[in-house]
Amino acid sequence: TGELSAQDLQTKEKELWRTIRKIKSLGTLPVVVQRTLTMLGDPNVTLSAVGRELQTDPTIAAQILRMVNSAFYSLAEKINTIDRAVVALGANSVRQTILMAVVFEKFKGIDSKEAQSLWYHSVLAGQLARAIAADRHLGPLAEEAFSAGLLHCIGKFALLQYFPEAIRAIKDLVQKDVPTDDAEREVLGTTHAEVGAYLTRFWQFPDPMVEATSYHKTRLNVIRNRTDLGPVTLIVHAACRLAHLPADESLEKAVDALDEPFMTFHKVSKGFILNSLPRFAKESRTIVTELFKTK
């Protein structure tokens, strides 16, 4: 079913490696990214110091400059230096832009249409996860929830890039009403959630992000019976489902069709969804449009 405990993840590594080892070009995260993410988590580190660190990676620096000057931020004047960009964006937006830049660079071989669709879902899930955290008065977890929501489908990015034929076979099974995780396991012997959990561990992301990636597609009846899962995991589980809803005139009908156990367990209201999803969907499309101007 794709659900894994921390101990399960360790025992699964050998099996998963048969699939992961084909993804030869991924490698570890750039050192500058690892250092910068650590610095952003340290309240004693200044944004100026973060900017100096980012200047050592031209690819990440260029992506941040591209985003800060995009229509999404709509700043009054163009920003030409990374140190000014970091100050203009702030720590949270810098972290999010770094994560997007890294994943975009790692998986730039995916078909553009497929990639844009998955990026839209990922960014929207991140936006919704942050809003759900705030709605539950879990403000300190809001940015962590966004990051986990943004990367929850990282395993699918890997499968799309390195196993396109398998993805087509999986889609054929899903069209025959086979659940996605069952179809993935039948074709690949693993699921995109398991691959994503492995990658986030391999890249040394925080444990809540690993757990959220692992459980985002787990069936609700399993999630409800687990008392050991962290709040970020539960938030991303809800955000992923909501991010699949249509952000158009059919949204209200789609919300009415959501099952009551899901709404009750995750404490999301119809009003919250109708008020937040269309706005976040519009923002997510803008972000993805700007992201793909680099291709």
SSE blueprint:
Elements: H1 6-20, H2 31-40, H3 47-54, H4 58-68, H5 82-89, H6 91-106, H7 112-135, H8 142-151, H9 154-162, H10 164-175, H11 180-188, H12 192-202, H13 207-215, H14 220-223, H15 231-242, H16 251-256, H17 260-266, H18 270-291
Helix pairs in contact: 1-12, 2-3, 2-6, 3-5, 4-5, 4-6, 6-8, 7-8, 7-15, 7-18, 8-13, 8-15, 9-12, 10-11, 12-13, 13-15
Average of pLDDT: 88
What oligomeric assembly is this protein in? single chain
Fraction of helical residues: 55-70%
Query: How many angstroms does the end-to-end distance come to?
Result: 35 Å
SSE pattern, N- to C-terminal: HHHHHHHHHHHHHHHHHH
Radius of gyration: 19 Å
* Unreliable stretches covering 5 or more consecutive residues: none
Helical stretch count?
18
Largest sheet: none
Strand content: under 5%
DSSP summary, beta strand count: 0
Structural class category = mainly alpha
Based on Cα principal axes, name the global outline: globular
Q: What does this molecule look like?
A:
The chain is an all-alpha fold and 295 residues long. 69% of the residues lie in helices and 0% in strands. It contains 18 helices and no strands. The protein has helices at residues 6-20, 31-40, 47-54, 58-68, 82-89, 91-106, 112-135, 142-151, 154-162, 164-175, 180-188, 192-202, 207-215, 220-223, 231-242, 251-256, 260-266, 270-291. α8 (142-151) crosses α13 (207-215), α10 packs across α11 and α12 packs antiparallel against α13. The protein is globular and about 50 Å long.
